[in-house]
Structure formats: structure tokens, C-alpha cells
Amino acid sequence: MLIEHYTRECLDGISPEAAQRFLMPAAPWLDQIDVRRDDKATHRQHVPRHLREACTQLDAVADRLPETGARRGLHVFPEVAWEQGALVDEIAARLARGGNLLLVGEPGVGKSVVILEAIRKAHRLTAARDAPPTFWRSHAERLVGRAKYLGEWQALCDRTVEWLDMTSGLLWVTDFVNLLQIGGESPEDSMAAYLLPALRRGTLRLVGEANPSELEIARQRLPGFIDCFETLRLPEMDSMRARRVLDLFAGHAKNALSIDIERPALDTAYRLLNRYVRYDRFPGKAVRFFGDCVREAIAAQADVVTETAAIAHFAKSTGLPESFLRDDQPLDDTQVHDFFARTLFGQDAAIGHLKDVVYLFKAGLNDPAKPIATLLFAGPTGVGKTAAAKALARYFFGAGGGADPLFRIDMSEFQHAFQIARLIGTGTRPGKLVEHVRQQPFSVVLLDEIEKADARCSTCC
After folding, report:
1. Domain boundary assignment for the chain
2. Residue 188 in contact with residue 77, Cβ under 8 Å?
3. What are phi and psi of 398, to 5 degrees?
4. How far, in Å, CA of 396 to CA of 132, rounded?
5. Adjacent-strand bridge partners of 210
6. Per residue in 29-82, pLDDT tens?
7. Distance in angstroms (rounded) separating the CA atoms of residues 350 and 335
């Protein structure tokens, strides 16, 4: 107490600066305080509540693009539009400006990956705007999939258009042609017709993709809908560019997955795909083919895709025997004859015709744009007509070990002209024959009892 009283007496009335000289010197210290900044929370504070709610609603019917984080990492192979840089720049500029775009090209030319890459670039081009647009991907059935009652799908479309308009959203419909098939029975009652006023007003922006035949069907059925879109054609790549895409894919497989694709495998697979897979286009069919080869190599814990492995995978996927796929393996006439003779007894003339088909195909003299052969087996019941078709199917497409390569259609079920739609389909839905050929192009189609069908049904086949 005496010390405290003495100290007060000494310090009473002096300035703080004068009192500072009585303090004992001490070592300085620094306290570190970590403050974590929540960028997402900061961003949410700047986004109005009604926009956040609209984006939440859109998440239920569409996927937001571009993908980020874990979702983007799910893809084993990069979704990159190799050798399409100029087209990507053009589409991205159009998307940034606004409007509706329809990309038209044959299956396999890369429509989807070009649109995806263009959306990524358009997102970067518009990110600095005060109210940047949002990009979404969905398909027709998903947009109205929650509809349960009559008229409910129209209400779902209205809400989706409203949410997209609020967020300056652009919607990529991956199955564009289905917009004309979902909704009512006619194109005038379809989703496309219902969305047409919003497209004309500019409150809805769409991006779509279609092949030329789908575009023609859509133009015939609902021309006003197609007129709302700016159409852009995407041709098939030439041989040089397609091979560069394969080289880039091989480089990615080696660098990212440690799988080496040998040069002979690339060359042989390109030749086989170019000759036999005529219903698809480059570069899509080549990228999908080698994607499957790489996955098989990973599953087998191999670090290389050889030419032998590529040929084996092609034989497995198509059913074609390796004797057709290898130029260094000639056909043995005795083996070919014995194969058919084990099934067709006493039919040497028919076996000779079947052998001619085999040799013509092996030599590559058949028209690649047409079926390998069209044969008419005539004769009374029991002589082996169906057996000949089965033997031909096994020889050509039996190496895959999958589905039966023979597809039999009982033509006695098509005795009237109006039944042709069930056989080949209509403008909106494929028929029995078309659907099978699309799903399993490497097969033999047997039109059994063809003499009992209506002449027009037989002619269309």
C-alpha cells in the first residue's frame, strides 16, 4: 500500500509522455489471428435471393454448365473439341451475343463436345458482366418428367421458362428432335409448339443438335419452330484431321492414364472403322472405340493397347471374324466350304453362292454404302432356307459371342399396307426393322414368309 501511495504521488500531474520513461523495456510480440474468407458466402450475398431460388429450381430439371469440382473430375477422358478450335470460337461468340442455335451434323462428327466446349468459352467471355448469363443442359423428358396430370407439363414448361428468364439462362437440349414428339399426339400439341411463343419473344434461349434427317423431319412437321434457330452445319472431319485427333487422344491416354496406344493399333483401327462402321462418322467412332480399348486395358492391368488387342476388340464388338479383319490372313476354300456343308446337306449350288458372298466381302469389292448382300432363298418347306440364313449369320457375325446375329421377322404379320408403319416406323418413331438395325447393325435380317406380306411392305424392305 505504501508503494502504491508513493507511486501515485510521484506520477500525479505529469504527462503520459513523461510517465513513459518510468516503464521497464519489454520484448515486442505479434499475435497471429487466422480469418477464413468464405468466397461462396460472399458471392451469395451479392446474388439476389430470387436468382438463387431460380437456380435452385433449375437444378432439379437441368445440369448447370460448365461443370466444376468433383463432377468434372468424373470423366475419364477429356470432353475436348480437338481440331475444332475455330468452330468453338464462332459458336461461343454467338452464345455470348444471345439468340438460339441449332448445330446440325451426322452422328459422330462431334456436335455435343463442340457445344460443351463453346459453352465453357462463352461462360469465360461473359463472366465479367454485371449480370452474366447462366448455362444449363437437359433433355425433353427430364424437363417434364415430374408431370402426373393432364396439363401439368405445360405448367412445368412455363416455370422453367420463367426461371431461365430470371437467370438470363441458356438451355442446351441434348435430344432436340424429341421436343416435337413429347406433349400431344401432333406437332401442334408438342413441347416445341408450346415453347414457340417464348422463343419468339426472346424470353427463352435454346441450343440444340440434330442430324440432317432429323432437321428435315422437324422442318416438315413444325417449320415455325426451326425458323427461330440459327442453323450451323458441322461436316465430318477429313482423314488428316481425324488422325490428328487420334494422336491427341493417344497422348492423353499415355500422360493421364499411363496407357500407351501403339501406332499400328491406331492405323489398323482407323482402317477397320473407315471400312466397316459406315453408319457413324469420325472422330466420334474412333474416340469411342479407343476409349473402350483403354478401359479394357485398365481392367486387365495392361499398360499398352496393341494392334492385336485392337483387332480383338473390333471382332468382339462387331462379330466379324479376324479372317475378315486381317489382310495377312487369306481364306481357305476348304474351310469355308466345310463350314456351310456342316449345316446344308446336299446343297452344293447354294453353298457356292454363299461362298461367293464371303469372297466378295473379303476382297472388299462390295459397296460399303449398301448391305453386304441381298439374297432370296426359294424352295419348298424343309430344304434349308432358314438354315442357310443362320449359317450365313454365324459365319459373318458370330465371332462376338453376344446377341444372336440373325434377326427374323415373320412377314405374315404384315399382310396389309397400313402395317408398314409397324415395320419401318413413322416420322417420329422407328419401326421393328429400323430399330433393330440401329441397335445391331452387324447382323443378318431374315424376312421369313415374305410371299405372305403385302407387296408394299415387301418393297420397302
Report:
1. 47-233, 239-318
2. no
3. -95, 5
4. 56
5. 104
6. 566 666 555 544 444 445 678 788 888 999 999 999 998 754 554 466 778 899
7. 16
Class (C level, CATH) for 47-233: alpha beta
Query: What are the residue ranges of helices labelled H in 307-411?
Result: 307-318, 322-325, 333-341, 348-362, 385-397
Q: Residue 221: exposed, middle, or buried by beta-carbon count in 10 A (0-12, 13-18, 19+)?
A: buried
Angle between helix axes 263-276 and 284-299 (nearest 10 degrees) is 130
Question: Per-residue DSSP letters for 217-278?
Answer: HHHHH-HHHHTTSEEEE-PPP-HHHHHHHHHHHHHHHHHHH--EE-HHHHHHHHHHHHHH-T
Which of residues 176 and 9 earns the better pLDDT score? 176
Q: Is the peptide bond before 371 cis (omega within 30 degrees of 0)?
A: no
141-159 b/e (C-beta count within 10 Å ≥ 16 → b): ebbbeebeeeeebeebbee
User: Which three cell numbers mark 30?
Assistant: 505479434
- Amino acid, res. 241: R
The most distant pair of C-alpha atoms in the chain lies apart, rounded to whole Å, by 136
CA 440 – CA 59 distance, rounded (Å) = 36
Calpha distance 267→239 (Å, rounded): 11
d(CA 85, CA 66): 18
Who wins on pLDDT, 8 or 419?
419
Q: CB burial class (10 A; 0-12, 13-18, 19+) of residue 319?
A: buried
Q: How far apart are CA 390 and CA 385, in angstroms?
A: 9
What does the alpha-carbon distance between residue 82 and residue 65 come to, in Å, rounded to a whole number? 20
